[in-house]
Design goal:
By secondary structure, the protein is an all-alpha fold. The protein has helices at 2-13, 16-34, 50-68, 73-78, 80-86, 91-110, 114-123, 131-156, 162-184, 193-199, 202-210, 216-239.
């Protein structure tokens, strides 16, 4: 399994696309947080990373499918999937190896953003950032990123076209993150169903975790969605 994980890591960083994706992700975060006046952290009168934690999931919607789009699509296209099946690995081990490889890449992209927290802390003259809320928000980003990885792998397992895998992965991630929020605002659901529909979305549970209080129900939700998409991916590999 760890051989597959290492292969996923090397495959991503052996291409210029991987470096470009990470640079664009970090550059956009920097522009939104320190340059663009409407979202700049420097324009607030208090130390807060709220804008970063609101913007990052939307940027991850594009970064994660970029990481995962080649995971299985390239294997099918290049014919290496047949070789992969001859290895003494079960479909489950292949899927988890791909998952951990892609997840480590995404975590690598998030690690430099910790500099933002230290910067705001140093720039603050009184108090500083909310440590509990910041840690909770980073845990939320980690959870939501792993779910996006599972979705991206699932999309890649259905096609040999990397562009299609990216589009489908990004679309499904967007629906899971923002779609249920939008549906919950429909007038027909105002009788109380809006809350339950909103609970089906990632954003609802992400906001809960971001408050700094880790509720087991939110963690179970993220793990449940993650396992669902990885199970679909595994079943798809068994079928192929």
């Amino acid at each position: 399994m760890w051989m597959i994980c290492k292969k996923e890591w090397l495959q991503f960083f052996n291409s210029l696309t991987g470096y470009i994706a990470l640079i664009i992700f970090l550059l956009l975060n920097g522009l939104f947080l320190f340059v663009f006046p409407d979202t700049s952290l420097l324009n607030f009168g208090y130390a807060s990373l709220n804008n970063f934690f609101e913007i990052s999931p939307m940027l991850l919607l594009f970064l994660v499918p970029t990481v995962t789009m080649r995971s299985f699509a390239d294997e099918y296209k290049q014919g290496t999937f047949e070789l992969l099946k001859t290895l003494p690995l079960t479909p489950s081990q292949i899927v988890w190896g791909k998952f951990f490889g892609a997840a480590i890449i995404v975590i690598t992209a998030l690690l430099p953003t910790i500099v933002y927290a230290f910067s705001i802390q140093q720039l603050s003259s009184v108090g500083g950032i909310d440590i509990g809320g910041t840690l909770g928000s980073y845990i939320g980003l980690l959870l939501i990123s792993t779910v996006f990885v599972a979705v991206g792998l699932c999309a890649s397992s259905f096609t040999n076209n990397t562009v299609l895998a990216f589009i489908v992965g990004a679309f499904v991630c967007f629906i899971l993150y923002s779609g249920f929020d939008a549906i919950s605002k429909l007038p027909v659901l105002k009788s109380g169903w809006d809350y339950w529909v909103e609970m089906l979305g990632l954003n609802f549970h992400y906001k809960n975790v971001s408050r700094g209080v880790i509720d087991t129900r939110d963690v179970i939700y993220f793990i449940g969605v993650l396992f669902l998409f990885l199970l679909i991916t595994q079943r798809n590999l068994q079928r192929k």
